[in-house]
Write a structure and sequence with these properties.
- Two copies of one chain form a homodimer.
- By secondary structure, the first copy, chain A, is of the alpha+beta class.
- Chain A has two domains: about 5-145, PurM-like, N-terminal domain (60s Ribosomal Protein L30, Chain: A, 2-Layer Sandwich); about 150-300, Phosphoribosyl-aminoimidazole Synthetase, Chain A, domain 2 (Alpha-Beta Complex).
- Chain A contains nine helices and 14 strands.
- Chain A has helices spanning about 5, 10-15, 65-80, 100-115, 170-175, 180-190, 200-215, 235, 255-260, and strands spanning about 25, 35, 40-50, 85-95, 120-130, 135-145, 155-160, 195, 215-220, 245-250, 265-275, 280-285, 290-295, 295-300.
- An eight-stranded mixed beta sheet of chain A has the order 8-10-7-11-9-12-13-14, sandwiched between helices.
- In chain A, helix 3 (about 65-80) packs parallel to helix 6 (about 180-190).
- The longest helix of chain A is centred in the N-terminal third of the chain and has 18 residues, at about 65-80.
- The radius of gyration of chain A is 19 Å and the shape is globular.
- The interface between A and B is large, with 72 and 72 residues.
Chain lengths: ~300, ~300
Amino acid sequence: MKLKDLGEFNFINRISESIRSSGRVVKGIGDDAAVLEHTKNKYLLFTTDMLIEGKHFHKRDKAELVGRKSLSCSISDIAAMGGVPRFAVISIGFPGYLDLKYADKLYKGIKKVAERFKVDLVGGDTVSSGKIVINIALTGEVEKENLILRSGAKENDAIFITGNIGGSIKSRHLNFTPRLKEARILVKNFKINSMIDISDGLLADLGHILEESDKGAVICEKAVSVSKDATGFDSAIRDGEDFELIFTLPERYADKLESMWPFKTRLSRIGRVLNGSKGFTLVRKNGKSGKINPAGFTHF
Amino acid sequence: MKLKDLGEFNFINRISESIRSSGRVVKGIGDDAAVLEHTKNKYLLFTTDMLIEGKHFHKRDKAELVGRKSLSCSISDIAAMGGVPRFAVISIGFPGYLDLKYADKLYKGIKKVAERFKVDLVGGDTVSSGKIVINIALTGEVEKENLILRSGAKENDAIFITGNIGGSIKSRHLNFTPRLKEARILVKNFKINSMIDISDGLLADLGHILEESDKGAVICEKAVSVSKDATGFDSAIRDGEDFELIFTLPERYADKLESMWPFKTRLSRIGRVLNGSKGFTLVRKNGKSGKINPAGFTHF
């Protein structure tokens, strides 16, 4: 059997099932970041992301934006846990023929994001490689009471997303802003039950929340704010790398959240969490509804 | 200017000079691992290592050994700081055509090392890549009084190395044992002034200690235990990836250390730290001595 036949998710599951962890691990593989015992009041968060030329960015993309993206992805993971980022180590594989200016600009992009989000760049490894490879490992911290997992969604929770989704491949995947300040306001002021960032697509990532929480959901097409870059709703909900937040909270707080939302970033209430036996339903603009497969295939 | 003309060390220096760090960073780029404020009595250590197919291992190498090496390199970094490893996150780039068995064996190698050294594997990222790329980021902890930096070597310190050096490319670079238990015994029982692991070669890595400590050294050829895999002393001191320890401690403790050394791993007292103006001297087996350049070129 080849790896491509198994798929990334299944391979990660395959690994994680066989790993034994010590009592210091609160949550290992299977959320946006690992959650580890740290101090009396805080957990340590830990995440890693690898970006490869030709897949996550192209040689023609501006080096500074590639650097920006590489650290922003990891900050987005920490934000989705409710935490704040702290320390990053960066490994880079560079072809020897690469111009020094490219490498300098890439680091400039990383440094700008690090300064903006108060991340300390504390270590690195530079190796020679045929293609450019960037790996960022990032730690963070979260107050124990503010930790949000994928697995906490409750029946009748309202489902919200930030921003507009879809078509990020046109440009936004390189210059998005991780929703750190939004996530921190949310976890400090509301009873958020579950949260994830959109890296695999709205449908797939909401699917992760539902699967981990053993719940279903109903989503309203008309409530989802689709980006002008997307080719329509049906592709927008499958497009990856939006790096927006999906989160759920008890319905009774939803109005208050909408009325006090202090950011320019759009906030959309797109649906509701159902009990686990009811699956994943989409209500179309014309009022028709049907089951939908979070893996990405609609059945109507 | 191309990256290959600048070289890895100079590029890392170039980056680190421009990075501003917060007060939480005790030691950033420029040692085996970053040292970060953590708890009242302990520092957090943080390191990252990227291994690329064709450079750090070959497709023909056994997958389990490649996995073993990838985590062992990082544990060696934590050991060289005097600490113990804790949590690892692993990013892997795999070609889609790769057989699942290869991936499983690679993870098996990582897991075996993790279990032996009590490392929790807490997260991962799997992406598709033309060549196999493995990145491991590892945290560790060290009691504040046991932290050892490269920069602490003192005049007249005795210089020691563990194991035999040179020629690790023949096989040892894939199946070495990181010197964690040796390093822990050292830092808990002796006043170790400086330590590093040998990744770039004895000469280059001792050179890092001397440069960071602003010291010179004299090394005796006959005291250096050269591996049977090496093609001779002159290449052995330049060969990389021994993953042995180099450390220095005050001369008055050297005899005691040699007499109580409890391990099978060889311990060799190879020289002495000199004041900074005396450079780097090699005493040949025939008694002749001359200056040597830690970058790897002998002047006699």
